[in-house]
Design goal:
By secondary structure, the chain is an alpha/beta fold. The chain has one domain: P-loop containing nucleotide triphosphate hydrolases (Rossmann fold). It has nine helices and ten strands. Pfam families: AAA_26 (PF13500).
């Protein structure tokens, strides 16, 4: 596994973890690496005739090379668009860390890097007893944080970075995502983020109504 295997978290939900994760997969593939994506727990799924499927998890599967089995990309596909703990209860499903670890092991066996997308913000729990840091520890992954560029993002990013460190996880980089095209002084806010966050920025994704992961990958500059 390369150092680019990582756990993607965010400053909140809806800030672009999925597009950042898929873009990172394309960036790794452009370097000649076998890279696969994983979204261990996904809420808000549809039954498309082959079982429950999540749009973000499908995007990660499509951005992967080799293309892994969906069941390994997304071992817990939960129908209701709710917090994982609630969605799992609605579906009568018990989320088990061992199942996530086993699926990740199968992905890791076929790739140079596995990009694992978390749920919501860093502090969003998976279950009453499993926080996201437990997944990070079990998979032995560094963390990359996605920051949605909008009003308030500086505080959210600093608090998230501090929470990751306080939990004993290793934050290695962050990716900015332009989720608000009307954000006032976005460049100045980005500059402040570069100054106050403790790790390097891996790229800044521009706003796009329907972002293309391959095109977005060109905005990423991965550390050596």
């Amino acid at each position: 596994m390369t150092p680019y295997s990582c756990y993607i978290t965010g400053t909140d939900t809806g800030i672009g973890k999925s597009i950042a994760s898929a873009a990172l997969l394309h960036a790794l593939r452009a370097r000649g690496q076998r890279a696969v994506g994983m979204k261990p727990v996904a809420s808000g799924c549809e039954d498309r005739g082959e079982g429950w499927r999540n749009e973000d998890a499908l995007a990660l599967q499509q951005a992967s090379d080799p293309v892994p089995a969906y069941a390994d990309v997304n071992p817990y596909a939960l129908p209701q668009p709710l917090a994982p703990e609630l969605a799992a209860a609605e579906a009568g499903v018990s989320i088990e860390l061992a199942t996530i670890v086993a699926a990740h092991s199968r992905l890791a066996a076929q790739a140079d890097a596995v990009v694992v997308e978390g749920v919501g913000g860093w502090a969003a729990p998976l279950t009453a007893t499993i926080d996201q840091v437990e997944v990070v520890r079990a998979l032995q992954l560094p963390v990359v944080m996605v920051v949605g560029l909008r009003l308030g993002c500086i505080s959210h990013a600093r608090l998230t970075a501090r929470a990751i460190a306080a939990d004993g996880a290793n934050l290695v980089g962050w990716i900015a995502n332009g989720i608000d095209p009307g954000m006032a002084r976005a460049d100045d806010n980005f500059a402040i983020l570069q100054r106050v966050l403790p790790v390097a920025c891996w790229g800044r994704l521009p706003h796009a109504p329907a972002p293309d992961a391959r095109a977005m990958s060109r905005y990423l500059t991965l550390p050596r």
